[in-house]
Amino acid sequence: MSVLPFDDRDGFIWYNGKLVPWRDAKVHVLTHGLHYASCVFEGERVYGGNIFKLTEHSTRLDRSAKLLGYELPYSVAEIDRACQETIAANKIVDGYVRPVAWRGSEMMGVSAQSSRINVAVATWEWPSYFSPEAKLKGLRLTISDWKRPAPDTAPTASKAAGLYMICTLSKHAAENAGFDDALMLDYRGQVAEATGANIFFVQDGKLHTPKPDCFLDGITRRTVIDLARAQQIEVVERAIMPNELEGFEQSFLTGTAAEVTPLGQIGPYNFVVGDITKSLAAAYDKTVRAKAS
């Protein structure tokens, strides 16, 4: 299957304050963000020409940069406008948006306090993170050997590029073993999240989800919690141990890319794609589409 490379496409990317032709949006091989992971980013979805919860994403980008020790050269409002300009220039009606900020190539070494902070926004059509077939019957997850780090070992509240290295390793290992994704535990051995999405479980009509104290508290995660409470579903945020998975009836992932995606299996544990999962998936789809009307 041929894949259109991301560096060779038509369209425009917003780059340090202006729209440039897609193929001209380049960085040097010695950029600090490439060598030392001084990079933060966001993932956003466009529905009907509108970016869902745009300002929340822009605010988190700003906060992530601060957690990595630098200030963005643009305000949250300016980043909002840049995202809107980019989807308009590329005529994106339903798709994905990727704002990204990184330290440049002015200094090469661990210390790079004089390096320029670059900001770019790209957008493209992207229908679904997982295949419709996999989502219909529920994804199959393995359990990763890698663990989410403790908050005193990494800036775990940021959406920082460096935190995704073990996610890539985990997802590749899962796919190579015939699974769709991987469940990651945290440094304490508690259930944390999948490689790029938060996780929920259903037991006796209640929704259980891990406390995001060492991984990202997703914007979609918070949206789904609000939707569940609106449906009078009790939400319990707590520490969850892997051996508890046997007692859960349903499970699903949430994320900007994943949206609400049912799970059918995690390691030796099986789940049904039940009514609560379906109801919340439908409610989320209605919510994001309503924002586009």
Write the layout of secondary structure elements.
Layout: E1 12-15, E2 18-21, H1 32-36, E3 39-41, E4 44-47, E5 50-51, H2 54-67, H3 76-89, E6 95-103, E7 117-124, H4 132-137, E8 139-148, H5 165-176, E9 181-186, E10 191-194, E11 198-203, E12 206-210, H6 219-230, E13 235-238, E14 250-255, E15 259-266, E16 269-270, H7 275-290
Parallel strand pairs: 8-9, 8-15, 12-13
Antiparallel strand pairs: 1-2, 1-7, 3-6, 4-5, 4-6, 6-7, 9-10, 11-12, 11-14, 14-15, 15-16
* CATH architecture assignment name of the largest domain: Alpha-Beta Barrel
- What fraction of the residues are assigned to beta strands by DSSP? 25-35%
State mean pLDDT (0 to 100 scale): 95
Global outline: globular
Provide an overview of this structure.
- The strands form two sheets. Strands 8, 9, 10, 11, 12, 13, 14, 15 and 16 form a nine-stranded mixed beta sheet that branches. Strands 1, 2, 3, 4, 5, 6 and 7 form a seven-stranded antiparallel beta sheet that branches.
- Helix 2 (54-67) crosses helix 3.
- This protein is 27% helix and 29% strand.
- The protein is an alpha+beta fold and 293 residues long.
- The chain has two domains: 12-124, D-amino Acid Aminotransferase, Chain A, domain 1 (2-Layer Sandwich); 132-290, D-amino Acid Aminotransferase, Chain A, domain 2 (Alpha-Beta Barrel).
- The chain is built from seven helices and 16 strands.
- The protein is globular, with a radius of gyration of 19 Å.
- A hairpin with a 2-residue loop joins strand 11 and strand 12.
